[in-house]
Amino acid sequence: MKYIFASIFLSLLLLNSCSDSKTSANLPPASGLTGDIFLVMDSIQWKGPLGRVLDSLFSAQMEGLPRAESIYNMRWIDPRKLNFVLKQRRNLIFAVSLDQKTSGANQVKRIFTKQSLDQIRTNPDLFSQNAQNVFAKGQEVLYLFSPTEKQLIQHIRNNGKKLIEYFDIRERDRLTTSLFKSKQVKGIPEILKKEFQCEIKVPFGYQLVMNNEEFLWVRQINPKDDKDIFISRKKYISQEQFKRDSLISWRDEICKKYLFGDPDRSDTYLITETEVDHKPVITREISFHKKFAVEMRGLWRTNNFVMGGPFVSYALVDQPKGIIYYIEGFTFSPGKEQREIMRELETILYTFRVSSELPVSPK
User: Fold this and answer.
1) Sign of the dihedral through C-alpha 105, 106, 111, 114
2) Where would I find the H helices in 113-231?
3) Do 7 and 124 lie in a common domain?
4) What is the DSSP pairing of strand 73-77 with strand 36-40?
C-alpha cells in the first residue's frame, strides 16, 4: 500500500490525534458499514466548492452496475459535534484549508501540531496524510489540507482516482479478513494447483459447480442473490488478447459453452451486454499484484433477456507457463443493491495467484 500511494500521501511531523491515541490493542473496534465514509469539515466549506468536489468524487456512480449506486456513501459531520461514537467510524476524512477561520475549521486545525501547520503553510505540495487505528481498531483516517481552499480543491481534482483507490484497497483488506475467517471450500485449492497451475481463495459457503481443463466455476446461491466466480485459461499468443473486443469474444465463448440461464436448456446462455449505450463495457490496464492485467466491468444478460446483472473480471498472463487467465465474478440479484456484492466478488478475485506466486511444495 505504501508503494502505491507514496506519490500522494506525504508525511507530516506529527498529528495531535495520533500522538494522543491509545495503542491499537486497547482501542474499540471500528464501527459502520462497508462503503461508508464520514467527512469531518467546517459547515461553510461543506456547503461550498470544497464540499462539492469531495462529495462528487466519492459519491460518483460506480462503474458496471445496472442501476445508479455511488462508490461510497459520503456522510458529513460537523467538527463541533464529533463525539466519541462518531470518532469510531471505519472510514474518516478530515478536510480543512488554513485560510478558513470559522469555529468548525479551527476545530479541525487543532488536530495538527504547530510544526505540521507550519509545514502546510510553507509547502503547498503537501495536501494529505493517512493514519490507521487512530480512534478505533481497523479504522482508516485520511487528512486533507492546504494553505488555501483553492489549492486543496486542485489537489483533490488532480489525485481523485488515487484517493478512491486508497479507500478501495482498505475496504478490500477488511473484506479479505472477514471473508476468510471461516475455512475455505475444501478441494478447490488442490484442483487449481494441479490442473490450472494457479490459486484462488474461495470462502466457505461457495460450492464447486464445474471444472475441466479450461474452466472452473464456483457459486453461492442465497435467498436474495446468486454470486458466481469462474476461471478460464488458454495459451497466451500475443498482447492482442488483452484488447476489449478480444476479451468480450473470449468471455462470450466461455459463457455460451458453460453458463446457462436454465441449466436444462443450452439455448439460454449468458452473453456480454454491449447494446446499452449508457452502460458500456469498460476496460482499463491495472497492476494486479505487480503484474500487468486488464480489468473489465460491464453487464451480462441471457440471450433471451430473462436474466442479467453486473460482472467484473481480470485478464493476466503467467509468462513462464505461457498461459493467459480470465477470472470473473458476476451476480444475479434483481432489484437489490449490488455495490457491496461486487466488492465481495472483486475481493475474492484479488486472491488469485499464478504458478510463480505459489508456495513451493516440499520434496
Assistant:
1) positive
2) 114-122, 149-158, 160-179, 188-191
3) yes
4) parallel
Residue 131 C-alpha from the chain's centroid: 19
- Residue 363 covered by a domain: no
CB neighbourhood size of 201 (10 A): 18
- The neighbouring-strand residues paired with 291 are 288
- Are residues 161 and 63 part of one domain? yes
- CA gap 231, 211 in Å, rounded: 9
- Quick one: 162 and 205 in the same domain? no
Torsion sign over Cα 150, 153, 157, 161:
positive
Are both 166 and 97 inside the same structural domain?
yes
Residues 133 and 221 in one domain: no
Does one domain contain both 108 and 36?
yes
CATH number at residue 10: 3.30.379
Q: What CATH number has the domain bearing residue 257?
A: 3.40.1000.10
Residue 180 lies in a domain: no
Rounded to two decimals, the pTM is: 0.89
Domain range for residue 253? 188-357
- Which CA distances in Å does 85 have to 49, 81, 90? 28, 10, 11
Q: Which pLDDT tens digits describe the chain residue by residue (363 residues)?
A: 343 343 344 445 456 655 444 566 789 999 999 999 999 999 999 999 999 999 999 999 999 999 999 999 999 999 999 999 999 999 999 999 999 999 999 999 999 999 999 999 999 899 999 999 999 999 999 999 999 999 999 999 999 999 999 999 999 999 999 998 877 888 898 899 999 999 999 998 999 999 999 999 999 999 999 999 999 999 999 999 999 999 999 999 999 999 998 887 888 899 999 999 899 999 999 999 999 999 999 999 999 988 999 999 999 999 999 999 999 999 999 989 999 999 999 999 999 999 988 877 655
329-340: string of b/e by CB count within 10 Å (b at 16+)? bbbbbeeeebbe
State CA 128 to chain mean position distance: 20
Same domain, 197 and 146: no
Q: What is the DSSP letter of 15?
A: B
> φ, ψ for residue 35 (rounded to 5)?
95, 0
User: Crossing angle of helices 160-179/49-58, nearest 10°?
Assistant: 40
Backbone φ/ψ region at 187: left (φ over 0), alpha (ψ -120 to 50), beta: left
